[in-house]
Specification:
- A hairpin with a 4-residue loop joins strand 5 and strand 6.
- The chain is an alpha/beta fold.
- Strands 3-2-1-7-19 form a 5-stranded parallel beta sheet.
- Helix 1 runs parallel beside helix 9.
- It binds flavin-adenine dinucleotide.
- The site of flavin-adenine dinucleotide has 33 residues, from helix 1, strand 2, helix 2, strand 4 and helix 9.
Amino acid sequence: MSKLLIVGGVAGGASAAARARRLSEFAEIIVFERGAHISFANCGLPYHIGGAIDERDKLLLQTPESFHNRFNVDVRILNEVIAIDTGNKTVKVRNLKENSEYTEAYNYLVLSTGAAPVHPNISGINNPLTYSLRNLGDMDDIISVIDTNRPEHATVIGGGYIGLEMMEALHNRGINVTLVEQASHVMRTLDEEMSEVVHTEIRSMGVDLQLNTALQSIRYITSRAAVSQNDGKDLDESNRCGYLELATDKNRKTRTELLIVAIGVRPEIDLAQSAGLEIGTLGGIVVDSQMRTSDPVIFAVGDAVEVRNFTSDRSALIPLAGPATRQGRIAAGVIFGEQGEYCKTQGTAICKVFGLSVASTGMSEAALKNEELEYEKVYVHAANHASYYPGAETVSLKVLFSQDSGKILGAQATGRDGVDKCIDVLAVSQRAGMTVEDLQHLELCYAPPYGSARDIVNQAGFIATNILKGSHRPIHHHQLQQLTNSHVLLDVRTPEEIQTLGTIPGAINIPIDVLRSKVDELPKDKEIIVFCQVGLRGYVASRLLNNRGYNTRNLIGGYLTWTNTQ
Ligand code: FAD
């Protein structure tokens, strides 16, 4: 009979344990979890803080007792594995309740130790008003500080999905929020021009969004100091437990009463590293496609491991719940004789930012550039369902694809409705190895309340295919800077649109519907750069001109994409 030990009892660990039991009724399975809970919903933590999930217990998907009853797994909470002896195949465990240590032998070991929040090296960071969010204990601490101190102002550093979710949760608790992000935009899985709408949404909710800003120092002012500074006036008001004075590299000082640090996570590898397991250059545990580490009887899964990026086929750290649970399942399967393989990670993710959904799959343009991979891109800004049916909302979609093979490399979308469907379809298409040409043929749900006869994903396929076939010569927003006097910039929208929305400096205006009658006004010896609001009329105009012997390019994503970059 096999003895399987699992370190870490949340996403990857719990999934490995449950799968192992389904495959072997008689194996001895022990899960060690150093925290007080197993199998809790870390993804739900911000939503309980913000009040959308009202009962804390709903976050506890399993307890040690329920897990034992269902799966006959020995779950040992408050037990931390502190060392692995790979020679003798034993682990040393510290029982945190009793402050004692013991060893446990294994035939197989699965490490699902997760990733810990990164703590920046900022002076003053260790103070009683600064928190990160990883587990239920952190959540309870944050809720307790909110309930006890009733902060009027909180600051979140880091505009990734945990930072954004915390920003919204704190806002929903009636707290004024400042969000500080060192980069030029939030959600690094999006490219800059796609994130502009997210910034607008954040600011429209009254959040003080500080981009390109780094927190430099923190000063904790205790209640006593605060009182003396304010002649005792604030004792029963906002200074009950003191506050923080934050200074940024923009010389801005902010007084805040709660600071959430959400600047990313780092794989927890200490245990693996001290056991001599191979660690990759990105700082995660190295595993093969069956999740086996450099020791053949030790497997590792989840946020602690380096995966293969589906798009680039290079090593990557992609800490997400779906991959962690699937990897746990694969590892258990392999241990109990199945021949499964983990098929790389696309990084498909979605985040709610107030009324907006922000989702992506595959690689961003910035990441493709970083890895020096070739690509082309298209944008579609279109209604999520038939625009004549009430409630239509714009979805902005960007699809990145290979110019050589037409394969999908990544996609990003923002909007109020239909974003998850759009990105899920593209995630499946990419996983299936489809090309942008194949996207034209996807037959997706359509009735006016749900979609369009030409779905947004179909539209992306049409534009991309036209580009690949050469019937649509693209120009991108960043290439407009290279225009010279051998180009004519032609805006084909109506004068009313231009008056309301503005235009690109230097453009002349001939609305598309009168273009045929005014075509002679355009010089044939210059390249005509056509644009409209989102790219469609520009394409029609550029075809009209092409067919009449003009040399044209159409601005992909139109004026809307261009304005997002200004
Ligand atoms: P974890 O789930 O972190 O579990 C690791 C466990 O191992 C921890 O409980 C830890 O205490 C324990 N452990 C570590 N070392 C030891 C040791 N030596 N001995 C015993 N126990 C040990 N992902 C999404 O896809 N979508 C989301 O919306 C989403 N939202 C999130 C929101 C928040 C606030 C957080 C924190 C994460 C979110 N994630 C989300 C990420 C997702 O939760 C993780 O990718 C996933 O939980 C990783 O699973 P894991 O098993 O690798 O690690």
